[in-house]
Amino acid sequence: xxxxxxxxxxxxxxxxxxxxxxxxxxxxxxxxxxxxxxxxxxxxxxxxxxxxxxxxxxxxxxxxxxxxxxxxxxxxxxxxxxxxxxxxxxxxxxxxxxxxxxxxxxxxxxxxxxxxxxxxxxxxxxxxxxxxxxxxxxxxxxxxxxxxxxxxxxxxxxxxxxxxxxxxxxxxxxxxxxxxxxxxxxxx
Length: 188
Known about the structure:
It comes from Actinoplanes italicus. The chain is α/β, with parallel strands linked by helices.
């Protein structure tokens, strides 16, 4: 059975999207990009909300841009090879290969995907991830924590949900970014 992973950059105070502006520095360097590429190379399916898909579709052609460094090209090729499912009620069409649109998030369908997949899946974007978290579908949480406190926005974890997690891995980068991987603690 594949794992469902929720991974995003988050501010030090726990926001995956800041109310105003960016989340701070630390995620832009080659060291971090290479680590992320190594970490997610085995992902077979990305689950996106519309806004996150519109951000990530950049990777559909990033490998064709002259002078992009090898770590950018490598990540782009991995992203292109994976399946993408975009959950949106408004998106008319997609602009990337291996991509489908679903109008509603169905936890039963995602459970089936996890059970049948040979490769891990990710859920990306705080709104879509909140639905997966509330449905008890997320197996691991990968936080890339910046050095900034932003004071508001969309939280990485949804309000009103209790999670008991085990720290599995941690790493700090020269940029100040901290990576923390948590696994959902089994019930009982």
